[in-house]
Prior knowledge:
Radius of gyration: 11 Å
Number of strands: 0
Structural class: mainly alpha
Largest sheet: none
Low-confidence stretches: none
Number of helices: 5
Shape: globular
Helix content: 55-70%
Order of helices and strands: HHHHH
Oligomer: single chain
Strand content: under 5%
Amino acid sequence: MDIKQKVGSRINQLRLEKKISITNLAWDANIDPSYLQETIRGERNISIIKLSQVCTQLEISLHDFFVDPLFQ
């Protein structure tokens, strides 16, 4: 699994835990839903700024986002 897939998987994991739809998460994070869908599928390289916006909506810090066994 490459880094784009890991990031996408982690976003999806946290999104499912919070029971937030992809569309609602995208709108709340001020990004396009198709961009987020492609990121979750590991097809797009998300910028750190957009990832920060997603993390804010998921109520997790960037540090805690990456402190996960998926990234070790």
